[in-house]
């Protein structure tokens, strides 16, 4: 009880200092809790949606996926004859069955030819209005489509694009463009996942999406009373006799949920990873806080020991303070986490994915995990300061002595830090000289961990050296005030090292990712300059195929010297060594592609691969299967017959663009794949006549105005798009890393605030002998800046080392250009100095307001 009272008194006596540490715990726990609540809520939302939209049994056409996704390389969904519907209705246990047709390989535009697709990445779905959809949507305006000239859409899409009854809608498919006017608007009765949904009359949907009537993509089957889904599936399967995909409602829901979870898990674990980094940074803050509090209470602890308190009691007192900090910070963090989750839901709503707070899911394990993590991390971080407090001898009460210094421990720490850093550097060297990226990545991971830990452990030693260098470069120009700031930073190298290390971690990751991202862009740009021999690239940015009408418009564009089509399909390969490789991609292109992409060959000429019944393979594939020029490969096309193709070229496996591609001609593909099964183009390349590039570029954009889903890019546009894509990813990562940097800033603030308290008497004496308030504040600000710059130097240096090593591994995959983004590095370095200034504002202000006489009288 005495220990608890003492701990509580000390905790409340330093509540301002504890609050900063509690904020670090709160942020870290809040991020973990918010991530878990958000992903659980997403899972609940989609689980309800899938359960509501699934019939007892769903019959799908052969070739459709488990999730019902109908996108295909032909641009048309896989279908089954309408006669299947009668067979299903005659099966035992069937109460009703309804045929549906829908596709996601579509683009929908309004009367101004603007796309109506969601910006969140959710699909655009066009299908026929049916009873199954009526379970989750209610017509709130107008009527369902009754003829070819009518279309109905969901209310969210109508609201977002300001559409109403009578407005013109264009549905663009592989078969052409179908125009209709809005006859009705339907509102979701469940949470809208963000998709844009359009309904046509059944025959119109069949004709528009498939090109003929009398076919369905799915049949929704409802069970008779008392018939289980499993029994119904068995009976329907028996009636159909195979050749179709038959799934129960649970199987469809599980498949859809698995698809959603695969996306959510990537986001979930990425966010938890950044929360872990914030926790790591928070550990330094807590260690520094309790170390300084212990140092400031040396005399008090000595007196406690003198009147009979044992080492264990003193140790326990500090740990109880940490426990209080962990419980309070974690409890607040759990509450903040729910707020973060709601904020993420609102953000998703602004992107078009509407999530209701009615589905907010807070499993009991989430707050329990948050509390456990926060408390355990806080108590573990306080263990070393608590142990140090227990070592204070009773004699310390009789003199003004800090916590016992242990020179031997400092030497041991330095040796361990040097060993870890050396081992990490050696691991990075092995990674950088590896022959295979897979093997080198393990060494890279080990090197990153060891060098990070090594720099943390060796921080005090590095602080002693680097602070002197920084002092000579930055602080000496400020005269005596600068020299005092330098001495203050050097007074406790362990504290300075820990404070700098907290900032180092976040900046090291920023520097590493900047180097990797910049090198990827530079390498891809270099490859484009060296290998791409065409002027323009036409593609759909979300991976959809290019319909024949758009290709025809490209070919009719004036000012073009040549147009190259590029498509791919899947086949089973049987190689000369007798092995069969299932579902392997093969790329089919026009012969002019050999000029559009100057691909390096190690044997033969790529032009020859486009001869009849010929193909190319890449170098690694050739070596793995004993293939050489003239070898025959049996290629069984998934949607066609079997061909025996002769290898006419072996391409390099080191290039980035089309890495690992195996080529044949479109003419060869057409020989073995029926016309109705032929894949459509994924890309189209266009080359302008000499001197007509600018005019051709403008003409191409005009020719494809009716097809807004396709983008025309010249090489400059393509490089910019690549840079923007990687830049957006890095900006998102930097945003998440900002959490760790915020915690690190709190650490600098806390260190300075406690340092001011620790030096109260010293500050009073300096003020008494003539140091002005402005000089005092400047001294504290300069100390903060030099600590922040110290951490930035460590972090940026370490991160650039990691990034350069990672680029060596990427070079094995063809990304051979190392590019250091100096503008980013310099900006981060300068920003670190401003971080130091910002962190010192409150401590410097409080120090300047200190009463001189009271400060001198402080014991």
From TrEMBL:
Domain annotation ABC3 transporter permease C-terminal: ranges: 274-394, 736-851
Transmembrane segments: 269-295, 318-344, 364-386, 407-430, 442-475, 496-517, 732-757, 782-802, 822-845
A GO-annotated cellular component: plasma membrane
UniProt GO MF annotations: transmembrane transporter activity
Compositionally biased intervals (Polar residues): 59-74
PANTHER family per UniProt: ABC TRANSPORTER PERMEASE YTRF (PTHR30572:SF4), MEMBRANE COMPONENT OF TRANSPORTER-RELATED (PTHR30572)
Protein name: ABC transporter
Lineage summary: Bacteria, Bacillati, Actinomycetota, Actinomycetes, Kitasatosporales
């Amino acid at each position: 009880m005495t220990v608890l009272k003492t701990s509580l008194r000390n905790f409340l006596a330093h509540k301002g200092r504890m609050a900063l540490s509690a904020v670090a715990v709160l942020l870290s726990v809040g991020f973990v809790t918010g991530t878990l609540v958000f992903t659980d809520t997403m899972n609940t939302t989609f689980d309800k949606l899938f359960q509501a939209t699934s019939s007892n049994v769903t019959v799908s056409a052969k070739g459709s996926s488990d999730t019902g996704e109908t996108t295909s390389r032909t641009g048309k969904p896989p279908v089954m004859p309408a006669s299947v519907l009668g067979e299903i209705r005659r099966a035992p246990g069937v109460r009703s069955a309804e045929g549906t047709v829908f596709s996601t390989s579509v683009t929908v535009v309004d009367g101004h030819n603007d796309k109506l697709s969601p910006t969140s990445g959710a699909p655009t779905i066009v299908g026929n209005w049916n009873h199954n959809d009526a379970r989750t949507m209610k017509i709130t305006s107008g009527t369902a489509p009754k003829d070819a000239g009518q279309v109905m859409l969901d209310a969210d899409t109508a609201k977002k694009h300001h559409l109403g009854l009578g407005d013109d809608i264009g549905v663009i498919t592989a078969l052409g463009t179908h125009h209709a006017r809005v006859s009705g608007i339907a509102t979701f009765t469940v949470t809208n996942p963000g998709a844009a949904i359009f309904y046509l009359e059944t025959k119109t949907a069949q004709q528009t999406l498939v090109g003929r009537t009398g076919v369905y993509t799915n049949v929704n089957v409802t069970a008779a009373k008392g018939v289980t889904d499993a029994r119904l599936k068995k009976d329907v399967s028996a009636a159909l006799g195979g050749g179709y995909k038959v799934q129960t409602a649970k199987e469809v829901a599980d498949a859809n949920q698995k698809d959603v979870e695969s996306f959510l898990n990537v986001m979930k674990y990425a966010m938890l990873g950044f929360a872990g980094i914030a926790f790591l940074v928070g550990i330094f803050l807590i260690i520094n806080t309790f170390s300084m509090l212990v140092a400031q209470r040396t005399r008090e602890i000595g007196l406690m020991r003198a009147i009979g308190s044992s080492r264990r009691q003193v140790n326990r007192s500090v740990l109880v303070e940490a426990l209080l900090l962990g419980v309070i910070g974690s409890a607040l963090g759990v509450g903040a986490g729910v707020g973060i989750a709601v904020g993420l839901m609102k953000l998703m709503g602004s992107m078009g994915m509407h999530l209701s707070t009615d589905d907010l899911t807070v499993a009991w394990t989430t707050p329990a995990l948050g509390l456990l993590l926060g408390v355990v991390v806080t108590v573990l971080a306080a263990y070393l300061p608590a142990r140090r407090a227990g070592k204070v001898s009773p004699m310390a009460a009789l003199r003004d002595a800090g916590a016992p210094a242990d020179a031997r421990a400092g030497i041991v720490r330095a040796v361990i830090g040097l060993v870890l850093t050396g081992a990490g550097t050696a691991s990075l060297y092995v990674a950088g000289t590896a022959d295979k990226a897979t093997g080198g990545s393990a060494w890279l991971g080990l090197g990153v961990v060891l060098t990070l830990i090594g720099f943390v452990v060796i921080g005090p030693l590095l602080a002693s050296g680097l602070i002197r260098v920084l002092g000579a470069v930055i602080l000496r120009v400020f005269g005596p005030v600068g020299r005092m700031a330098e001495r203050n930073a050097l007074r406790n190298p362990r504290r300075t090292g820990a404070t700098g290390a907290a900032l180092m971690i976040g900046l090291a990751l920023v520097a590493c990712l900047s180097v990797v991202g910049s090198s990827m862009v530079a390498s891809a740009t270099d490859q484009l300059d060296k290998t791409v021999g065409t002027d323009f690239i036409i593609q759909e940015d979300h991976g959809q195929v290019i319909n024949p009408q758009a290709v025809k418009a490209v070919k009719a564009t004036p000012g073009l010297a040549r147009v190259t089509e590029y498509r791919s399909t899947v086949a089973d390969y049987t190689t000369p060594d007798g092995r069969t490789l299932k579902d392997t991609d093969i790329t089919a292109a026009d012969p002019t592609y050999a000029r559009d992409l100057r691909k390096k060959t190690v044997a033969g000429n790529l032009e020859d691969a486009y001869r009849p019944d010929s193909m190319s393979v890449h170098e690694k594939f050739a070596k793995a299967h004993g293939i050489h020029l003239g070898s025959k490969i049996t290629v069984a096309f998934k949607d066609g017959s079997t061909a025996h193709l002769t290898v006419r070229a072996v391409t390099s496996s080191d290039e980035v663009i089309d890495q690992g591609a195996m080529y044949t001609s479109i003419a060869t593909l057409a020989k073995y794949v029926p016309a109705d099964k032929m894949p459509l183009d994924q890309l189209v390349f266009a080359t302008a006549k000499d001197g007509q590039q600018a005019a051709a570029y403008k003409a191409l954009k005009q020719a494809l105005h009716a097809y807004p889903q396709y983008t025309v890019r010249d090489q400059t546009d393509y490089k910019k798009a690549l840079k923007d894509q990687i830049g957006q990813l890095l900006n998102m990562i930097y945003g998440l890393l900002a959490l760790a940097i915020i915690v690190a800033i709190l650490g600098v603030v806390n260190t300075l605030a406690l340092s001011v308290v620790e030096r109260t008497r010293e500050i009073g004496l300096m003020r008494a002998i003539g140091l002005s308030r402005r000089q005092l504040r400047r001294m504290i600000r300069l100390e903060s800046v030099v600590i922040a710059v110290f951490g930035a130097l460590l972090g940026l240096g370490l991160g650039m080392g990691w990034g350069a090593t990672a680029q060596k591994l990427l070079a094995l995959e063809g990304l051979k250009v190392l590019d250091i983004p100096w503008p980013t590095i310099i900006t981060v370095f300068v920003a670190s100095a401003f971080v130091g200034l910002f962190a010192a504002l409150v401590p410097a202000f409080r120090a300047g307001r200190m009463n001189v006489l009271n400060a001198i009288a402080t014991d």
